[in-house]
Structure formats: C-alpha cells, structure tokens
Amino acid sequence: MTYHYDVDAVVLDIEGTTSATGFVVDVLYPYSRSRFGALLSERSGDPDVARAVAQVRELTGDPEADATAVEKTLNAWLDEDRKVTPLKTLQGLIWAEGFARGDLVSHFYDDVVPALRAWHAAGARLYVYSSGSVAAQRAWFSATPRGDLLPLLSGLYDTENAGPKQEAESYRRIAESAGIAPGRLLFLSDRPGELDAARAAGWHAVGIRRPGEPHYEQGVGDHAQAGTFDEITVSRSTT
Q: Do 20 and 109 meet the contact criterion of CB atoms below 8 Å apart?
C-alpha cells in the first residue's frame, strides 16, 4: 500500500526507521565505549561534558562520583541500552569526533535518501527526533555515503530539547518550536509507543517495519505501516 500525505513537514526517527539499529549497536556503541574514559579526562572542562557528568551524578544519587565511577555507570547504561540523556550527550560528542576524523560513516537504508530528497523538493520541511543527541544527529547526517545531508534538514530534536519520545507533550513542544500546526506534521518511527504519542498530539504517524529490526515482530499497533519510504509520498499544498 502507498500512503500520500499533504503536510508541511516530516519528522524522522533514526534507529530502525532511516537506519539499521544493528549498525548503531555493533559499530557506534563499541566506539563510544572505548572512548568514554578519554572524553571524561580530556574534556572535563567542556560545558556539555560537565553538564552530562552532573546529570549522571544526579541520576545515580552520587554527587561525589569521580570519572571512573561515571564511566562505569555509562557502560552499564550502554549494556542496558538505556535512553538516558547524559549517555546520549556523551556518545554524541564522541561520535561527532569520529565522524569528523573519518573513523565513522553513517548508515542509511537505500530507500531513505532518495525519498528525503523528493520530499524536500516537494516543499516539505524535514526534521529529526531521536533519542540520540543533537550532536550525534548532526554528525550522522553530515557524514553519510551520499554526502552531507544536513542542508535537507530544518531542525534536530532529542530528549533534552524536546522531551521523552513516548510522551505527547514532546511532540506538542516540537510543533510549537517548528511553528507548524500538529495536523500538518507527519512522524515516522518503528516504535508504537512513539507513534501513539505523536498521534495523541494531533500528528499524522506511520510505522516503519523493516525485517530484521528489533521492533519488527512487535508491529506498529493500529497505525498505518510501511516497509520502506518508497511507500510514502509527501506533498505540500500551497492553498
């Protein structure tokens, strides 16, 4: 089935939607794990690092936690695949350095980039909303096999500047920030809880189900579902 949406903007999840979760887990997670210690010691004065460390201490209830204890907590959260803001912040800083050095190149499913270019050409604005930090998103979309895709994007949102992905209020916050009416926004994700929250905020929502992804068997609830971006067309009326 092909779905057509007349909207002003499309908001994208990353893992399982535009890109393979396996790449993130098998490539990016180990890369960040190997560099947490160096980041905490070498960039402790960086405001983003200091804020993230303070958040780790607050979440663990240990205001005196040193770099070793913080690194241990980060690795434990990584093992549990926790969507915790300070973990995502520090991962994002590490990945940004890795992409900038050429150590890393991001992954996109083959159908994604052509669709993004087509939707952008049709007048739709494109945004990203991911549990990965804004820094990680910026690095991810700038270092792709298809070149720098950042010029296609109008904005980036994460759990820090928008809020938790399974809460409707986060989607209301994004709509307000973007200056777009909720009914003129389309959200694409592989997670039913996120789709539910977007719909509760008045958005359109389509579940992306790609074989091999962790949430494939779970399905997308009662939402419209597509196997690839090829099954979705987007236009933007000017009336």
A: yes
Q: Residue 223: what residue type?
A: H
Give the Cα separation of 16 and 19 in Å (integer).
Answer: 6
Query: Measured in whole angstroms, how far is the alpha carbon of residue 189 from the centre of its chain?
Result: 10
Tokens of 127: 């945004």
Any idea how long the chain is?
Answer: 239
Q: CB of 51 within 8 A of CB of 89?
A: yes
The predicted-structure confidence for 72-116, as pLDDT tens digits, reads as follows 999 999 999 898 999 999 999 999 999 989 999 999 999 999 999
Distance of alpha carbon 239 from alpha carbon 234, whole angstroms: 16
The CA-atom distances, in angstroms, between 130 and each of 69, 171, 223 are: 27, 12, 19
Q: Which two tokens stand for residue 71?
A: 């690194």
pTM of the model: 0.88
The answer to whether residue 119 scores a pLDDT higher than 80 is yes
Mean pLDDT, to the nearest integer, of 206-221? 95
